[in-house]
Write a structure and sequence with these properties.
Oligomer: single chain
Strand order of the largest sheet: 7-4-6-5-9-8
Structural class: alpha/beta
Shape: elongated
Radius of gyration: 31 Å
Number of strands: 28
Largest sheet: 6 strands, mixed
Low-confidence stretches: none
Mean pLDDT: 94
Number of helices: 7
Distance between the termini: 33 Å
Strand content: 25-35%
C-alpha cells in the first residue's frame, strides 16, 4: 500500500485512473436500444449507399451536353419521354435530345448524367425548355456517394446519437455491436450522514454524495448501484465493499479518505486490495484515493460535495471514458476573467466560475458548500506552476 497522503500530481493521478479502467466486454443490441451506447467496433457498409444514382431535386433527367449554352434567351429544347415514379425503376433511357421528368429521390434513368431543375425549365406539351445549362453530375447523388461498399459508416468508440441510428438503419444494420454498460457502485460513509428524507439533527448531514455520484455515473453512460450509508467502522465497510466489488465494474466510496482516525477507506481498500494513490495535488480534492480490489477500481472521494464533484470531473471521468470506450468530450470556452484568482504553487486549483456577459466570474466558497455547484457553470484550472490569474486575463473555462 502507498504511503498515507503521499500527494501526486493531477496528471499522474489521471494516468493511474485510466490504467486501472476495467474491461467491461461487448454485446449486441437491437437498433432501437442502441441510443447513447458506445460502438464496440467499426460498422462498415455492406453495399454502396444509396445504391443507385438518384436525383436530389424535382426536375428533368438529361444528358448534360444537351444543355450546353442553354439560357433564358436561347433555351435547350428536349423531347419529354415520360415520368420516373418514386420507388420504381425508370421505364426507359435518356437518349440525346430527350429527357424524363424525375422527382427528388427518383432513380436516374440510364443515359442521363444530370438533372435540370424545374425552376429553370418549362414544358410545352411534350417538349421541355431548359433555361439553365447543367454540368455532368449536377443535382445527382451517385450510387456510392453516401458510403461505398466496405467504407466505415461509424467508427468504434462513437457514442450513438439519433442521427447515427438513422444512418445505421439506412445501411441495413439492425443489430449493433456495443460496449457493455459499466456498473458503478456507490457507497456513502460517515457517522454524521443520514438518508435524504431524514429530518436533520445537529451535526447531521443528508446523503448528497451518493445521488451526486450516481447521477454523474449515469450522465457518463454507466449504470449506478447505490449501497447505502456505512458508519465509520471498517468492520461494516469491509463486507459492503466486498459485495460491491463483486457486482460492479467500478466502486466509488464517498467520505472516509482524509487524515483522521475515523477515516478508514484507505485502510479497508488496502486490506482487500491495493492503494495506488492516496493524495492528489488538487484543490479541492487532495485526499482522493485510487485503489483496486482484484480487478475492480475503487475510488475514495472526499466527503464534501464540491470536492467530490471536482474529483469526479477531473479523475473519474477519464476512467469511465476508458471503461466505456468513448473519449471525454469536455466543453470549453475562452473568456476574460472578471476578478483575481489567487492560488498556491504546487497544487492544481479548480476554481468554480459563472460565465456571464463574456466574462468568467469566480464563485468562491468552501468545499463543503453545495450552492457553488449550482451557481457555477464550470471551472478555471490554475496549473500547479502558477500563483493564480489576474483580472482581465484570458482564461479557459471547462464547462460542467
Amino acid at each position: 500500500m502507498s504511503l498515507f497522503l503521499e500527494v501526486v500530481p493531477v496528471e499522474e493521478a489521471v494516468e493511474v485512473a485510466r490504467s486501472i479502467a476495467p474491461e467491461v466486454g461487448t454485446e449486441e443490441v437491437g437498433l432501437e436500444d442502441a441510443l447513447h451506447r458506445v460502438l464496440a467496433e467499426d460498422v462498415t457498409a455492406a453495399a454502396d449507399l444509396p445504391g443507385f444514382d438518384r436525383s436530389v431535386v424535382d426536375g428533368y433527367a438529361v444528358t448534360a451536353r444537351d444543355t450546353t449554352g442553354a439560357s433564358e434567351a436561347l433555351p435547350a429544347m428536349l423531347s419529354l419521354k415520360g415520368r420516373v415514379e418514386m420507388g420504381q425503376a425508370p421505364p426507359g433511357t435518356v437518349e440525346s435530345g430527350t429527357c424524363w421528368y424525375i422527382p427528388t429521390g427518383g432513380v436516374l434513368p440510364p443515359g442521363a448524367d444530370a438533372v435540370a431543375m424545374v425552376e429553370y425549365s418549362e414544358t410545352l406539351e411534350d417538349e421541355v425548355l431548359v433555361h439553365h445549362a447543367v454540368a455532368p453530375g449536377e443535382n445527382v447523388l451517385s450510387h456510392d456517394e453516401d458510403f461505398a461498399a466496405g467504407a466505415v459508416v461509424l467508427p468504434a468508440g462513437r457514442r450513438l446519437t439519433p442521427q447515427d441510428l438513422g444512418v445505421l438503419a439506412s445501411a441495413g444494420v439492425t443489430r449493433v455491436p456495443v460496449k457493455k454498460v459499466p456498473v458503478v457502485g456507490v457507497i456513502s460513509t460517515g457517522n454524521e450522514v443520514v438518508p435524504a428524507d431524514t429530518p436533520l439533527a445537529p451535526g447531521r448531514v443528508r446523503d448528497a454524495n451518493s445521488y451526486l455520484c450516481a447521477g454523474f455515473a449515469r450522465e457518463h453512460g454507466c449504470e449506478a448501484k447505490r449501497y447505502g450509508i456505512i458508519k465509520d467502522d471498517p468492520a461494516l465497510l469491509r463486507p459492503v465493499l466486498t459485495q460491491a466489488v463483486e457486482e460492479c465494474d467500478l466502486v466509488l466510496i464517498s467520505g472516509g479518505s482524509s487524515k483522521d482516525v475515523r477515516d478508514m477507506s484507505a485502510g479497508v481498500i488496502g486490506e482487500l486490495g491495493t492503494v495506488l494513490v492516496h493524495g492528489i495535488a488538487l484543490s479541492p480534492g487532495k485526499p482522493t484515493i485510487l485503489g483496486r480490489v482484484e480487478t475492480t477500481p475503487v475510488i475514495g472521494l472526499p466527503g464534501h460535495p464540491g470536492s467530490a464533484y471536482i474529483v469526479l470531473t477531473t479523475v473519474v471521468a477519464p476512467l469511465l471514458a476508458r471503461a466505456a470506450g468513448a473519449p471525454v468530450a469536455a466543453r470549453r470556452v475562452r473568456v476574460r476573467l472578471a476578478a483575481n484568482i489567487p492560488s498556491a504553487k504546487g497544487r492544481e486549483d479548480h476554481v468554480r466560475v459563472k460565465v456571464e456577459a463574456g466574462e468568467a466570474v469566480p464563485v468562491f466558497g468552501k468545499s463543503g458548500l453545495l450552492n457553488t455547484l449550482v451557481r457555477s457553470d464550470g471551472v478555471v484550472v490554475v496549473p500547479a506552476t502558477r500563483e493564480g490569474f489576474e483580472e482581465g486575463d484570458e482564461v479557459e473555462v471547462v464547462l460542467w
